[in-house]
Design a protein that fits this description.
- The structure is a single chain.
- This protein has about 425 residues and is mainly beta.
- About 5% of the residues lie in helices and about 50% in strands.
- It has five helices and 30 strands.
- The chain starts with a strand and ends in a 5-residue tail after the last strand.
- About 40% of the residues are buried.
């Protein structure tokens, strides 16, 4: 999953975030969902969930779910434009908002409320996601990501000392329109090519690359696919694999790379020399420190560094589709002693059962995208099919992240899905297949 958003022309001064403790350091656990970092954020007293995304230059609120009691201050209507094939959309710009995250506080933050929810992040990720925050938080701190322990350490710049170790390395950050870019080298079609790349923690892919007339060419081994979604709508393109990238002194070989169709990014005002994006599938393999004040990206490998890069092997994209009522019958065995009719001094032990019926609301999952000619498509799965069982287990027993991992797990793995289609249950069997 990837999402893309641009906000233009609203660079008014606002208050900075600060850490309200004596240490100048704050540690926060996060939820890692489909490789993306989700953090709690309190706006004007209401706690919400936000995607922490280096690829956005403003704080965006696009879904309140059932939380409709949020009060936004000092609002005016604006237009937002971003990636995708749709038109700019209406939004509210709100200033003077109080924002808290544990010990971190900002008394005067601008927030942009999108009226319609084009991103649908909550449905696509399976957990509530109310908005996205990026530059507003990163500009004031040095933020260290530990993807293994799922926590971030946030430092005041004056309280931070860069770690020195043999495995540590760093790249210079170029900040353009409040977004971080780094220069790396890509190995594409057996050719070494310098790349200027946006560091985009809000993209669930490894790499996005923009084709050009000189060096960046889509490899011959590729397939068409849905790539992600933005403020402008869905984004399509091609998926492939390049020989690798050199990231500082480290190399990621045989890395997956997505090539969006040019129609989706033409006209979007980005860094003119940009060649693409580095997403969370790369970043999660590193112990990563993002230092906007010093314009440095520091990193060292973590335990996931050498894991292979893989695409979904089923051809299915699944989304959360509300909830379903599950009826569960609970058996309650009861033991009691029967009357001693033979004067033996010992009564017989008798067991009986009572039953309780328990109703619960459980997540429901729906197929929202099918890749043509994929194993799932060839087996007959269709968009709008409701998942009932996965390999014999009720679908609601899985999180959406678990389903996504399962569908990308092992080449040749057998998948048996029971789906509901227009009120009729169907069983579909296929085998996962490595596409590239």
């Amino acid at each position: 999953m990837a999402c893309f958003l641009c906000v233009y022309g609203f660079a008014e001064a606002q208050s900075n975030f600060r850490i309200n403790n004596d240490k100048g350091i704050f540690t926060m656990p996060f939820e890692l969902v489909n490789n993306l970092v989700i953090i709690p954020l309190e706006i004007n007293g209401l706690e919400l969930s936000f995607l922490l995304d280096t690829g956005v230059d403003a704080t965006i609120l696009f879904s309140l779910g059932t939380r409709e009691d949020l009060e936004l201050k000092n609002t005016e209507e604006i237009l937002l434009r971003g990636w995708g094939d749709g038109e700019p959309i209406r939004a509210l710009k709100s200033s003077g908002n109080e924002v808290k995250m544990g010990d971190i506080f900002n008394p005067d933050l601008n927030v942009y409320l999108v009226f319609d929810n084009p991103l649908g992040l909550s449905n696509r990720m399976g957990v509530p996601v109310n908005g996205i925050i990026g530059y507003d938080l990163f500009k004031d701190f040095i933020i260290e990501f530990n993807y293994v322990s799922k926590r971030i350490l946030i430092y005041n710049p004056q309280n931070y000392n860069a770690r020195r170790c043999k495995k540590c390395d760093e790249l210079d950050i170029i900040l353009y329109r409040n977004k971080p870019y780094v220069n790396i080298t890509g190995e594409i079609n057996k050719k070494s090519i310098p790349l200027n790349m946006l560091v985009d923690s809000g993209s669930g892919d490894a790499l996005w690359l923009f084709e050009n007339d000189s060096d960046i060419k889509l490899p011959a081994d590729q397939f068409k696919d849905f790539l992600g979604f933005g403020i402008g709508g869905s984004i399509y393109g091609s998926r492939s694999r390049i020989d690798g990238i050199n990231f500082g002194k480290y190399t990621f070989p045989s890395i997956t790379a997505s090539f969006p169709d040019s129609a989706y990014y033409k006209g979007i005002n980005t860094y003119e020399s940009r060649n693409g994006s580095i997403g969370a599938q790369v970043l999660k393999r590193l112990h990563l420190t993002i230092d906007y004040p010093a314009k440095k990206l520091r990193f060292r490998p973590n335990k996931d560094f050498n894991k292979p890069f893989e695409y979904d092997m089923s051809g299915v994209i699944v989304a959360h589709d509300g909830f379903t009522v599950i009826e569960d019958i609970l058996r309650n065995p009861i033991a009691f002693r029967e009357e001693d009719r033979n004067n033996t001094g010992v009564g017989s032990l008798v067991y009986s059962n009572t039953y309780d019926v328990k109703f619960s609301l459980e997540p429901q999952y729906k197929i929202v995208e099918i890749r043509p000619n994929s194993p799932a498509a060839q087996a007959g799965l269709l968009e709008e099919d409701i998942l009932l069982k996965i390999n014999g287990r009720p679908a609601y027993k899985f999180s959406l992240s678990q389903i996504t991992r399962l569908l990308s797990s092992t080449d040749g793995k057998k998948m048996k899905l029971v789906v509901e289609r227009k009120g009729i249950e169907k069983t579909v069997v296929f085998f996962l297949k490595r596409s590239i």
